[in-house]
Design brief:
The protein is an alpha/beta fold. The protein is 43% helix and 18% strand. Helix 1 runs parallel beside helix 2 and helix 5 runs parallel beside helix 6.
């Protein structure tokens, strides 16, 4: 099978590319190496993957680039997006342009190329601020609280339109706080670990009571692979761990994995943040055989081992 992975040089994307190659698939990577974080890091991600891929460096919103990338492709894993909840508050139009217009341009190019299978990387942020959990895919009341979250929900709606109108098979994967080796440098676990190893206090927004459903990257990739292999009209799946922990609990566990104490710089809550994420994974378990294998303490141990090795 030939798979196009948009955003394949990123954190999750590069792990997915690795897994696809390992099972014998042919892979095309489309990435624009933007400067949200260092393009050097993204190129390093692909250097780990190896030379077997076809790499197309270009913009998702460029129809000519997409036509080249889609040649001979059977299925698309669409991970390319402008990331970051807090950053989206500063440049909301940029997020709509990249994540919404970019997704629609991809869908149109797929229709033109008669590529009718898509896996779309959505986000747990589409659920908005919830008082309780777990979150279920059949909840029809979704109130995103950031432009990033709104852009991901809009992408889901575009995917639904493509499925119902043109018969495209689309699986939308709502990913819950992915972590692990190659995690983006501004994400909490990576940022906290670097600060702690440098003897610096970590920035902790709020009172440490927010809940997050941390999901190890290999479990996320397993869910995406299953979705690639199971075209079934339009479906939405939570890909999480169904085991949220508080921010203070995470900090304590990360301290143990690092073997250093972590000082906290307590800051005010940030706009756009939500009090909890919590995935119900019953549907993904039933339809994708999704079964996350890596508990948080083991995942943190693996992340710390990678971080230390990458700093040597």
């Amino acid at each position: 099978m030939r798979v196009l992975v948009t955003g394949g040089a990123g954190f999750v994307g590069s792990h997915l590319v690795e897994a696809l190659l390992a099972r014998g698939d042919s892979v095309v990577v489309l990435d624009n190496f933007d400067d949200y974080y260092s393009p050097i890091i993204k190129r390093q991600n692909l250097s780990v993957v190896g030379p077997e891929i076809k790499l197309i460096e270009g913009d998702l919103r460029d129809a000519a680039v997409l036509a080249d990338a889609l040649a001979g492709v059977d299925v698309v894993a669409h991970l390319a997006a402008r990331p970051g909840v807090r950053a989206s508050l500063e440049q909301p139009s940029l997020y709509i342009d990249n994540n919404v217009a970019g997704t629609q341009t991809l869908i149109q190019a797929m229709l033109d190329a008669k590529v009718m299978r898509l896996v779309f990387a959505s986000s747990s942020s589409v659920y908005g601020a919830r008082a309780s959990g777990p979150f279920r895919e059949d909840d029809v009341v979704l109130k995103p609280v950031s432009p990033y979250a709104a852009s991901k929900l809009a992408g889901e709606h575009l995917c639904h339109a493509a499925s119902t109108t043109w018969g495209m098979h689309v699986n939308c994967m709502r990913l819950f706080t992915v972590y692990g080796p190659r995690q983006r440098p501004e994400m909490a676990i990576h940022l906290f670990a670097r600060h702690a190893l440098a003897g610096q206090a970590i920035p902790r927004f709020g009172r440490g009571e927010s809940l997050r459903d941390y999901t190890y990257v290999s479990d996320v990739v397993a869910g995406i692979l299953a979705a690639i292999d199971r075209p079934n009209g339009f479906q939405v799946y939570n890909i999480g761990n169904d085991n949220p922990v508080t921010l203070d609990d995470l900090i304590g566990r990360l301290s143990g994995a690092l073997g250093v104490s972590i000082a906290v710089d307590a800051l005010e809550e940030q706009p756009g943040d939500v009090p909890r994420t919590w995935a119900s994974i019953a549907l993904a378990a039933k339809e994708l055989d999704y079964d996350p294998q890596i508990p948080l303490d083991e995942g943190l141990r693996r992340f710390v081992a990678w971080l230390r090795a990458s700093r040597d």
